[in-house]
Amino acid sequence: MQQKRKKRQNRRNLLRTFAGLFSMLLILGASYLAFRSMSEDEKAVSSSSSNSQEKENSAVSAQGDIQKWAEIKTYTEEDIHGGALILVNQKFPCKESSGLEMLSIYNYKNSSYMVSDKNTALRKPAILALNDMLEDFEKAEGPNDILVCSGYRTFDYQETLLSREEEEKGAQEASTWVATPGYSEHHTGYALDFNLLHEDGTSDSYTGTGIYQWVNDHAPEYGYIVRYESEKAEFTGIQYEPWHFRYVGVPHSLIMEKNNFCLEEYIQYLRDYPADGEHLFFEYGGKEYEIYYVKGPEVPIGEADSYLVSGDNVDGFIVTLEREIQA
Ligand SMILES: [Zn+2]
Is CATH 3.30.1380.10 what the domain over 95-247 is classified as, yes or no? Predict the structure, then answer.
């Protein structure tokens, strides 16, 4: 009899424990749901505020919400010196990259421009963007005389160019026109020079005037910048060169244009957007871009449809996340 009561009591205790556990689960579940819907609401608020008038007026905007990383990639010290955003000037030399793939423009070009010879080479993204830009230029302004006269240069070839210029203009003057070997953007494979080759065989310097103004005005839409503007010589150390174009890629070319930044200023500006702080947001062509700077070597990558990591050739990396904007 006593044992029976004890058994019953045990069973009751067990039931009470189960009930307790069950109600605890219920409470936990309910509060989880409440938390979830709250953060969903917050998300809605933050995304609607990002579509505010302010954002429409200025495509460049900074947002505070840091997302969870999709992955962490590890890069090497060497990787800092590669990519379409590397800054190469008298302060930051280019690391000679013999292993990089340089493609003959002649083999990849379309019919909307000329190239001086089969050895004139660039990195692939630069050629593809060049094709798009000059095809659209031809559609807009008709036939033209653009000749790509210089692309990728080895350190040796730069030496030849410099001594030729020194003979002509003297060492002092030459140094403001032709960079010392190792310090030319042409070593990157992302820079090119235009010349004009007329039908009668004569040629002219490319000045970006007349019908060619179109190219200098529209270049940023294709990822290109006019690298050496006259009013930026104090930063670049190079005089006005309307014929020298540098590929940095969209959206960077557009953000630079909008803020009137040369590459020196832009690379500095991006340091205000570290991975663990506010990121830089920019919308263009139905896409949202999110940009931030990381010192590395561990580079966190946020959720995105695609991403690109470039060294800055100074001390770190610039991450560009790309997302389709849902209609
Ligand atoms: Zn050049």
Answer: yes
Other beta carbons within 10 Å of 113: 22
Tell me if domain 60-85+260-327 and domain 95-247 are identical in fold. no
Question: What's the confidence (pLDDT) of residue 91?
Answer: 94
71 is catalytic: no
Q: 278-322: per-residue pLDDT in tens?
A: 999 999 999 999 999 999 899 999 999 999 999 999 999 999 999
What separation in Å is there between the alpha carbon of 303 and the centre of ligand 1?
Answer: 37
Q: What is the pTM of this model?
A: 0.78
Place of tokens 């050496």: 228
Going from the Cα of 179 to the center of ligand 1, the distance in angstroms, rounded, reads 9
Task: Tell me the residues surrounding ligand 1 (ion) with CB < 5 Å.
Answer: 193, 244
Q: What angle do CA 7, 12, 18 make, to 5 degrees?
A: 125
Taking phi first (over 0 means left), then psi (-120 to 50 degrees means alpha), and beta for anything else, what does residue 36 get?
A: alpha
192 CA from centroid of ligand 1 (Å): 5
Measured distance CA(21)–CA(175) in Å, rounded: 80
Ligand 1 midpoint to CA 116 (Å): 14
Q: Classify domain 60-85+260-327 by CATH number.
A: 3.30.200.180
Of the residues 54, 101, 231, 241, only one is catalytic, namely 241
Q: How far is Cα 36 from Cα 197, in angstroms, rounded to an integer?
A: 65
pLDDT of residue 176: 79
Q: Provide the CB-side half-sphere exposure for 18 (13 A, CA).
A: 6
Which sequence spans correspond to the domains of the chain? 60-85+260-327, 95-247
Bridge partners, residue 307, by sequence = 321
pLDDT in tens, 208-247: 999 999 999 999 999 999 999 999 999 998 889 999 999 9
